[in-house]
Every structure is written in structure tokens, then in C-alpha cells.
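How a chain folds remains the central question behind the approach discussed here. For one protein, we set the task of working out the C-alpha cells from the amino acid sequence alone. The sequence in question and its C-alpha cells are set out directly beneath this paragraph.

_____
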Amino acid sequence: MNKISDVVLKPLEKSIYLKPHTMHFTQNGLKRTWDLLEVHDSVAILLHNPRKETLIFVKQFRPPVYFGSIPEEDRKGSIDVNKYPAELGITLEMCAGLVDKDKPLVEIAKEEILEECGYDVPLTSLIKVGSYRSGVGTLGSLQTTYYCEVTDDMRVSQGGGVGDEIIDVVEMTVPEVKKYVAQDKIPSPPSFLFAVYWFLLNKVK
């Protein structure tokens, strides 16, 4: 995961994951335009092992985070990976996945848990925490978060994702999580903080 090479930036071509649009509209008599991206909705799952008092997350390389860490003047053509190592784009997140199947959200969440973290959980163990809009300035996609308690005997594989995914499973104690979120800058999305604070408020005595 920490080794990348041959990084080249090119203009967006045809994509199955996002579609750019410009919306034209009139608001309070003022004509306006807004650029936006059409993307899939998603699910995210906060995994908790109450017997071990740990939370389970995933760590992976995120190209947009890597891109955002590179100064604008160096975002052209080939990227110097010695000057800008892969660590700049590695994030800690909840287990998550796109809603790209015609299935109930809870079933998609169950599949993502198995694929990314290796736990085969019953559907009844998934508790909906809430749904919210992410990237409201550009995306506005809906993410639904679930909470799920697991045990070691539910783990049937090492996880790590499917296809070309490269995912590390990370298990952290509650004190470690508290220390992590107390940092000034953390390489995690807002949904991660939402779920962690929900957990600390509702599950930690």
C-alpha cells in the first residue's frame, strides 16, 4: 500500500463512477450556475468488538486525498513519488461501499463487511445510525451509516477488498480512537468523525 509509481494526471475521460454537470437555475430572481458531480450513494459501517473493546476500521490509499496534498504547481503530468510519497493519500475510514446494486442497503452493508474486513455478520446485527448528505458543495450523495457488533468467531477471512482493492484492516482500542480524533489534522472523512462521536456518546459508559 505504501508503494506507488507511474503516477500521471490526465483530464477526466468516460467514467462509470461520476458524471460532471452544470446546473443553471434562478434563485430569488438571480440567475446562477453550479458545477456538480453525479455519483453513487454509499453505505458505511462502524464495526465494534465489545468483547475486546475495539473498533475496526479500514486503511487505504485514496487518490483524491493524495491529489489534494500536492501543491497546484506540481499537479501536472507525472508526479514525483519521492517528493510526494503514498502516505499523503492513505486514510483511516469505516468499512464502506457504493450503492451500485439493486439490493436493500443493509444487504450491501453486510457484503462490504465481508469483503473489506472478513466478518460474516447476520443482517439483524446491523443497526442503522443515520443517513446524511456528503460533499454538499459538489456531490450531495446520500451515505447511510450502520453500527454492527462483531466477535472474533464471525471472522471468516482476512478481508482486504475484492478485485483491485488494496485495504488493510485496523483494530483500535477506544483510548486509541479518542487519541486519534483529538489530532489537529486527521486523514479521515467527516463520516468517520460522525460515527466515532456517535459511538462515544451512545456506547461508551
About this structure: The longest helix spans residues 105-117. The CA atoms of residues 18 and 39 lie 5 Å apart. The first strand starts at residue 18 and ends at 27. The chain has a mean pLDDT of 95.
